[in-house]
């Protein structure tokens, strides 16, 4: 039995995007309540302030006697100007669907992040590309008993102020203080095995086709 078998839902693993011979070491979904709450909170202060600002114009205009003549211009203008509000509402309304399509896999070959709204899309992170792993637990995360693991592969994005790192994120996982060091160990073990295969693979079965044993 695998060391991390207790975290695996085998029914879901059977339909996961694994390659032949790939072994799942850990697999989980985000905590549903935390995932949905965090999706709602993202952009909420900004969206509500934006809506309040626009309301200062919408309310007086709606009371104007010339409102009918102005509708042709007002409706398209505010439909576009309120775009941050629509985006926030879209995040709220699709949060449950996003959660259903989100799952994380740690295998003996790579890390897979499954996301999506209508269908599923997959991001693959190979161990040899990982530069750093960080655990972040905010105030809301601490209350909800979850954490986020940031995986740094060295990818960057150009911005007007220079460049910023692009991290892959395992969001809202339960038992973050338990999962984080285990993931660190897996990454360290497999990276060391890639660099020094004969020294780190078991002596009774040396070479390319050995399995990671944790």
Summarize the structure in words.
With 214 residues, the protein is α+β, with helices and mostly antiparallel strands. It has helices at 10-13, 32-41, 44-62, 67-81, 83-100, 139-144, 176-195, 197-200, and strands spanning 24-28, 103-107, 110-115, 121-126, 132-136, 146-159, 162-174. A 4-stranded antiparallel β-sheet has the order 1-2-3-4. It has a 3-stranded antiparallel β-sheet with strand order 5-6-7. A hairpin with a 2-residue loop joins strand 2 (103-107) and strand 3. Helix 2 runs antiparallel to helix 5 (83-100). The longest helix is centred in the C-terminal third of the chain and has 20 residues, at 176-195. The model is unreliable at 1-15 (pLDDT under 50).
